[in-house]
Amino acid sequence: MTEADAARRILKAVDDGFDDQIRFTADLTRQPSLRGQEAAAQDMMARAFRDRGLGVDRWLIDVEAIRNLPGFSPVMVSYENAWNVVGAWRPQGARGRSLILNGHIDVVPTGPADMWTSPPFEPRIADGWLYGRGGGDMKAGLVAGMYAFDAVRRAGYAPQGDIYIQSVVEEECTGNGALACLQRGYKADTAIIPEPSQCKLGAAQVGVMWFQVHVQGRPVHVARAGSGSNAIEACFPIIRALHELEEDWNKRGHAAFAEHKHPINFVVSKIQGGDWTSSVPAWCVFDMRVSLFPGMDLAQCRREIEETVANAARKDSFLANSPPRVVYHGFQAEGYVLEGGAEPQALLERCHQTVFGQKLDRMTFTGTTDARFFGLYADTPAMVYGPESEDIHGFDERVNIESIRRVTQSIALFIADWCGVKAA
Amino acid sequence: MTEADAARRILKAVDDGFDDQIRFTADLTRQPSLRGQEAAAQDMMARAFRDRGLGVDRWLIDVEAIRNLPGFSPVMVSYENAWNVVGAWRPQGARGRSLILNGHIDVVPTGPADMWTSPPFEPRIADGWLYGRGGGDMKAGLVAGMYAFDAVRRAGYAPQGDIYIQSVVEEECTGNGALACLQRGYKADTAIIPEPSQCKLGAAQVGVMWFQVHVQGRPVHVARAGSGSNAIEACFPIIRALHELEEDWNKRGHAAFAEHKHPINFVVSKIQGGDWTSSVPAWCVFDMRVSLFPGMDLAQCRREIEETVANAARKDSFLANSPPRVVYHGFQAEGYVLEGGAEPQALLERCHQTVFGQKLDRMTFTGTTDARFFGLYADTPAMVYGPESEDIHGFDERVNIESIRRVTQSIALFIADWCGVKAA
């Protein structure tokens, strides 16, 4: 049988399994695997791995075991339900190259449900798109990796390299799920992360940092508001100053992001303050997410943020003596540029060309993905490559169904070539 | 016995009961009678009334019964624990003038407890002050009314007019507790409200209005923050515009507030927005408390507020098509100027002069009190007159103990003269 025949068989096998793949993707999207609630969705993945005869490794993330590893992000929540699951294909002999297919199971909150056209955890297919929270980011991609593996098997082949399908938690807030896979010893010659990259290859991603600013006020009866200090309004000039730092960081630029007009985004994403409508508020806390270019040092970034907050506070007569606190909880993620891995990149380009009939474009992420762990801390070229998605983190998040099929086909061809196959 | 003798006996009776009065005030301050949690403190008042042989009327506020009365404020919470208590002295014959002594049992939240020197609901006496949330605003005053009545009795006199000691809820948010007393039919020739007026007579108070502004955003992944609309930051220009309206209202001025530099205060007192640190926030709600001069029409004020919000929103490309909602919940309180009631005012001045040895000063409140209900809607001159307090609604709220004694003495003399007494 020629190589072209093999490819045709594998592509057809993806098609043959595709209805089931979309059904499984929808079922997985139905799981409301919000932070701290991923366990049932992970059980579903563990069952799917077991059904395929893969070795199943399901473990609770042990914060103490990863706390001192590079890439760790501090957490303020309990990990008592933070389960990772890995399905492993371990061929006899294993003469081929190994591969990690990594995806995350956690999804971000829906926001007000009434702003969705249909309920966020009731997946709906319309006009060629699958709607639902987490369908695009990134259950479709996670499932695509597994069904790509299935297709190779269904086509009658046994991959000759180790394959680890990793379903991890915590991607949306820390990356500690992927980090825990490194800590547990998983290692391969390359990794694919099918985040919704619009069927392009993720060539670079920014770093991301989360922090909270805790601001105090001096509460008085509102009748004498002038003599108090309003903790809510005291946040505004601090936020303004942080936006100035954002512009400064954007100006520093980075070659990989030259095409982006505004790659660095500082976003005030949560705020809460005050207890009583007739009291000048005594406290306010806002959460900010900032991004940074690859190569920027996290400790230096933290210093700049803290100085910016302190300088803004010094201009306020009350805050000058009650300086705000900056608290880090969540992402302390460095930027990452895909470097090395010429071989797997070239192979993915060929597979993509075969399926899509056009060359594989590159893109850069102004967000982060778990790719950084493999690339920065495990010397494993990590390629972000996944389907087309819209409004992730927004309302009516959706993923394009045809793009899922094609990405699955590309990955299936990649598996067959990278790992090598023999007739099963 | 001369009138001066009677006064001396009454003043001494206040002194004799004063240790017990402060003990009771501290015990009442120990009750955390926050909104919705006043019932146990009200039971304590009901027991105290019963112990004195007063008629006790304890009832749950019926929103439907007061909803259409002037002065009603809309509520968004349940009244299932909103109990009012009135202790009534009903002398045989009742030839004297009648009196309402009205105080509120509800207290505002403490804010972060660690910002208090000692726990807010563990009353503490130091340097002549009683510390604790609600001690000043206004349990000391509420209790002073009851102990003033006691002192008259202990001095051997029976007041000859009806006296209603009203312990009401909801003063800090709506005034619906006092309104429910009107609705239930309580009525007298004058009223004293021992709010912490620094031993002065409250001659005027502003109106107060609460509202929320609900702002929407367009959530996107923070990586593309520029294409979303940040609901939190969208609040800032709206708040700025409302502060401009505040300055405009201040400029309109009012004779009774001529001595205040800035009588009208608009305060952003609560804010909450956003769900997830890596999503552009889809929603934010802030609470504002505004004040207005006596004579300003509430409906017109609401129109001006809504126009201000709408105009500010129109400048935002997203909000122009998703205008914020203004929701009223809580105070819709008109301003009030003490008018009429020359006789009770003159009497209170004389009683105060006797106790303090100096004339009764007047003050104006840049907040509201329940006095407005009696004055505006029941044709009853309502005099705010109570002890000296500091940091009400703040940390380490405290009330001056000597000022409690003296105010109690003034009110006791007032009761004896206003209602008339005969030897018991």
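Chain B touches chain A through 64 residues (CB under 8 Å).
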